[in-house]
Amino acid sequence: MARILLILASKFIILSILSSSGLIQCSREDDHDFVSILDRKLLGLKEEKLSRFRIYWHDIVSGRNATSIQVVQPPNGSATGFGIISMIDDPLTEGPKLSSKMVGRAQGFYALSSQEEIGLLMSMNFAFTVGKYNGSTITVLGRNTVLSKVREMPVIGGSGLFRFARGYVQARTHTFNLKTGDAIIQYTCYVLHY
Q: Which intervals of the chain form a coiled coil (predicted)?
């Protein structure tokens, strides 16, 4: 009996220390068992900052080294291409030339999702491969009306140095080749992250 009391007392002391240090949160009656409130510092989250960067997205649909592959061709002959879906693994560079320094890849898909105009649903990760951002990503998901001068799409998350990211990107067509369908798009990204 004395041994059981000793074990219970030591567990109570350990739980008291962990609870008072903030490592364990005690639940109130209205809390749910599967939810706990965490201290940002325990996750290594520091002050939030706003970063702006400009990159160029190279969508290459022609030639042997295409980086955009159409995976769905709809049965109808829509003038807007409604229903077409393409997978992408597009280079991201510092400058508009493909020979510029590559900083990452845009990986995901876009789908022609409008019957009224040429409008895309974009779902892609900007996966960075250089410098301190190597291995980090930001996720873009939104509507892209490609004939508009400036298109704005939300940043809905990220990984690595962009954990808990939010913000938006602005897309501007730098060049579009009517003959090949290849495009270079300038993306200016505004991202809040820790």
A: none
pLDDT tens readout for residues 51-82: 999 999 999 999 999 999 999 988 788 889 99
Pairing of strands 166-176, 151-159: antiparallel
Q: Which residue has the higher pLDDT, 12 or 174?
A: 174
What value does the CA radius of gyration of the chain take, rounded to a whole number of Å?
Answer: 24
Total domains in the fold of the chain = 1
- The dihedral region occupied by 15, where left means phi > 0, alpha psi between -120 and 50, and beta the remainder, is alpha
CB 56 within 8 A of CB 50: no
The angle formed by the CA atoms of residues 56, 54 and 60, to the nearest 5 degrees, is 10
pLDDT range class, residue 18, cuts 50, 70, 90 = low
Q: Distances from the Cα of 5 to the Cαs of 10, 13, 17, 18, 83, in angstroms?
A: 9, 12, 18, 20, 69
Nearest residue to 138 (alpha-carbon basis) of 157, 120, 123, 154: 157
CATH number at residue 140: 2.40.480.10
